[in-house]
């Protein structure tokens, strides 16, 4: 079972970028996807849970969606402080645990 | 405010064990499942396992099944993760993370991380 993310994406300030997360396991289609932002030397931060829910305090520039075996994180109005690593995750029944994608490094040009 | 504080960095020799603690402020961990996640240098996040609110039930990733033990002391809001038979591949930052809701598998409060270095 794998969650596949692009290794890197980039954008300019103010732009909208998306990060994809595709699952190889059939049960990915039925399990919820979550997204985390991770800055070096800090703890990961929950951005999106249950596919599209935003915790309090997370700006609405961040949005999540899921369709079938593919999920996406969209960041609009890109800011320099958004430069970080982003991870998707989901429970996997075959693995009997939480899988993380390989992570996507966002560079703000 | 949720506050989760982990124990300090450790240096261990191959074959040794390490026990990392994760203490939460009042009510942060009560009635919540807690997960452990690690990140090796230059690598992504890796889930290790979960412990239930009472500490009576655990589920571990198969990779760590034979080497990891997760426990908790509900009286002090502290969760522990012990990893044995360490090798250099266990050099990583270890995080505890609170499950958002009844084993929902999203993590809404994280410790600051504990660096474990395994070196002879």
Would you give an account of this structure?
The complex is a heterodimer of chains A (about 110) and B (about 120). Chain A has about 110 residues and is mainly β. Chain A is built from no helices and ten strands. In chain A, the strands form two sheets. In chain A, strands 2, 4, 5, 8, 9 and 10 form a six-stranded mixed sheet that branches. Chain A has a four-stranded antiparallel sheet with strand order 1-3-7-6, with no helix packed on it. Chain A is globular, with a radius of gyration of 13 Å. Chain A starts with a strand and ends with a strand. With about 120 residues, chain B is mostly beta strands. In chain B, strands 2, 4, 5, 6, 9, 10 and 11 form a seven-stranded mixed sheet that branches. In chain B, strands 1-3-8-7 form a four-stranded antiparallel sheet, with no helix packed on it. In chain B, a hairpin with a 5-residue loop joins strand 4 and strand 5. Classes of the chains: A mainly beta (about 110), B mainly beta (about 120). Chains A and B meet through strand 4, strand 8 and strand 9 of A and strand 5 and strand 10 of B.
Spell out the blueprint of helices and strands.
The complex is a heterodimer of chains A (109) and B (120).
Chain A: E1 3-4, E2 8-11, E3 17-23, E4 33-38, E5 45-48, E6 62-67, E7 70-75, E8 84-92, E9 97-100, E10 104-108
Parallel strand pairs in A: 2-10
Antiparallel strand pairs in A: 1-3, 3-7, 4-5, 4-8, 6-7, 8-9, 8-10
Chain B: E1 4-6, E2 10-12, E3 18-24, E4 34-39, E5 45-51, E6 58-60, E7 68-73, E8 78-83, E9 92-99, E10 107-110, E11 114-118
Parallel strand pairs in B: 2-11
Antiparallel strand pairs in B: 1-3, 3-8, 4-5, 4-9, 5-6, 7-8, 9-10, 9-11
In a nutshell, what does this entry contain?
The complex is a heterodimer of chains A (109) and B (120). With 109 residues, chain A is mainly β. Chain A has strands spanning 3-4, 8-11, 17-23, 33-38, 45-48, 62-67, 70-75, 84-92, 97-100, 104-108.
